[in-house]
């Protein structure tokens, strides 16, 4: 895993952990808690389109932040 990939994983994980909302990434048939750095590290960068499922009291803000982070790191999202 390169430096850019590690940076993306850490930034996405740290941002997710600032929210009370549940943030789950769907990749293929797998569902991974974005607040889990281990789960995130084995999920990202597999040339997939990612779908985020965000629910909770601060979900609108979480969606905006996650969308921006994924775009910043060139990770394609669908349905957010």
Give the secondary structure arrangement, pairings included.
Blueprint: H1 3-16, E1 22-27, E2 30-33, H2 37-41, E3 50-55, H3 59-72, E4 77-78
Parallel strand pairs: 3-4
Antiparallel strand pairs: 1-2, 1-3
Helix pairs in contact: 1-3
Describe the structure in your own words.
The structure is a single chain. This protein is 41% helix and 22% strand. Helix 1 (3-16) packs antiparallel against helix 3. It has helices at residues 3-16, 37-41, 59-72; strands at 22-27, 30-33, 50-55, 77-78. The protein has a 4-stranded mixed beta sheet, with helices on one face. The chain is an alpha+beta fold and 80 residues long. It has one domain (3-78): Histidine-containing Protein, Chain: A (2-Layer Sandwich).
Mean pLDDT: 89
Record field, number of beta strands: 4
Q: Trace the largest sheet across and list its strands.
A: 2-1-3-4
The CATH H-level homologous superfamily: HPr-like
């Amino acid at each position: 895993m390169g430096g850019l990939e590690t940076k993306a994983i850490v930034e996405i994980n740290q941002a997710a952990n600032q929210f009370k909302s549940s943030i789950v990434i769907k990749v293929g048939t797998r569902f991974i808690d974005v607040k889990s750095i281990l789960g995130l590290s084995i999920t990202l960068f597999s040339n997939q389109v990612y779908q985020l499922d965000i629910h909770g009291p601060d979900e609108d803000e979480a969606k905006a932040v996650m969308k921006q982070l994924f775009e910043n790191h060139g990770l394609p999202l669908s349905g957010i």
